[in-house]
């Protein structure tokens, strides 16, 4: 049986020492459990009893008492966590390895991190503990939880920290700081989040898309610059630096005057990309007249309209009034702003040219 690509002896030893069971090791490495033991014996690695994971340090009472730290970590596990149904092991995957290190420190756990390999490219924190697995199960983190996970009952005091963890796990924040969504395959979880946001006073909504497996995926949205700034005030009040940095920066971006933002803080690619679509000939002619009056390029004026619409966060569009005089129009836009407009259109079940025309206020749908 050939090894999977990249499975050197050193890599096999690293994976074994991470505490993964042989069943998982065989899948990742591409060798039988006997062949894996032969590699380990060759290098003098001390073997654990078969079927028993290596014991690592962890605070087994971590999920028994609510705190802001516990609530944040629970939000991460409920989105990016995985529970081994055959072993007393739980895993947390995150692209940013510093988040895994932070979680390990909060849980007084050994920083037992397996690097991405094979089809899994994301680093993974491994915790071997029957008690942790049981406590997470009590809170809704169970094997194959994706489609059924409920929103756990979190004390109001710690709910912002939990939601921050959920956003850090499965949330997306637009680079311009005008919209945010949380993606989940569980309708129960999506409705629970929606209720939380409504209770907090936000105009939230759920959109549905079809996943690659044909099953529905739900996105819980909050839109508008002022809405996101108010949400950030709630989420980061007791954060103690427990958050994914780039999401926090995007959510709080509009608190900083544009001329004071450093490139690192703004983290928006200012490069432009060409984009072609169809747009009403009448609206385009009006835009060109406005451009002449203001002595600005048409696409720069359009971008201002995009920002105003994203700040507003809502759209009321009558599809039957779509213009009949659409012609092709190609120009360049800020890449990240255009991506935000794409997401806005998709979440509202519209085409991007619908949103472009609507943003100008020059069409029949206004």
Automatic annotation (TrEMBL):
This is LAGLIDADG family homing endonuclease. It holds the Pfam family LAGLIDADG_3. It comes from Sporosarcina koreensis. InterPro entries: Homing_endonucl, INTEIN, Intein_endonuc_central, LAGLIDADG_dom. One of its GO terms (molecular function) is endonuclease activity. It comes from the Bacteria. Residues 73-202 form the DOD-type homing endonuclease domain. SUPFAM superfamilies: Homing endonucleases. Keywords: Endonuclease, Hydrolase, Nuclease.
């Amino acid at each position: 049986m050939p090894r999977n690509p990249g499975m050197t002896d050193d890599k096999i030893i690293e994976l074994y020492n991470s505490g993964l069971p042989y069943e998982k090791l065989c899948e990742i490495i591409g060798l039988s459990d006997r062949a894996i033991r032969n590699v380990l014996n060759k290098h003098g690695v001390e073997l654990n009893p078969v079927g028993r994971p290596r014991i690592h340090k962890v605070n087994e009472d971590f999920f028994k008492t609510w705190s802001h730290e516990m609530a944040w970590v629970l939000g991460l596990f409920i989105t990016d966590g995985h529970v081994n149904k055959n072993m007393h092991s739980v895993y947390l995957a995150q692209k940013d390895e510093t988040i895994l290190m932070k979680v390990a420190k909060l849980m007084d756990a050994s920083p037992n991190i397996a690097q991405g390999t094979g089809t899994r490219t994301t680093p993974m924190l491994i915790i071997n503990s029957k008690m942790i697995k049981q406590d997470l199960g009590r809170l809704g983190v169970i094997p194959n939880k994706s489609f059924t996970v409920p929103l756990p009952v979190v004390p109001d005091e710690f709910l912002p920290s939990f939601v921050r963890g959920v956003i850090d796990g499965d949330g997306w924040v637009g680079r311009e700081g005008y919209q945010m969504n949380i993606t989940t395959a569980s309708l129960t979880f999506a409705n629970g989040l929606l209720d939380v946001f409504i209770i907090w006073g936000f105009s939230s909504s759920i959109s549905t898309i079809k996943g690659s497996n044909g099953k529905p995926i739900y996105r819980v949205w909050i839109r508008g610059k002022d809405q996101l700034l108010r949400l950030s005030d709630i989420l980061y009040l007791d954060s103690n630096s427990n958050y994914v940095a780039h999401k926090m920066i995007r959510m709080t971006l509009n608190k900083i005057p544009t001329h004071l933002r450093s490139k690192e803080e703004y983290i928006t690619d200012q490069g432009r990309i060409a984009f072609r679509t169809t747009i009403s000939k009448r609206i385009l002619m009006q835009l060109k007249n406005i451009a002449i009056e203001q002595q600005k390029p048409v696409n720069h004026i359009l971008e201002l309209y995009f920002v105003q619409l994203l700040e507003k966060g809502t759209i009321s569009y009558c599809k039957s009034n779509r213009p009949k005089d659409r012609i092709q129009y190609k120009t360049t836009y800020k890449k990240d702003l255009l991506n935000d407009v794409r997401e806005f259109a998709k979440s509202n079940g519209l085409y991007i040219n619908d949103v472009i025309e609507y943003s100008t206020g020059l069409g029949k749908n206004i």
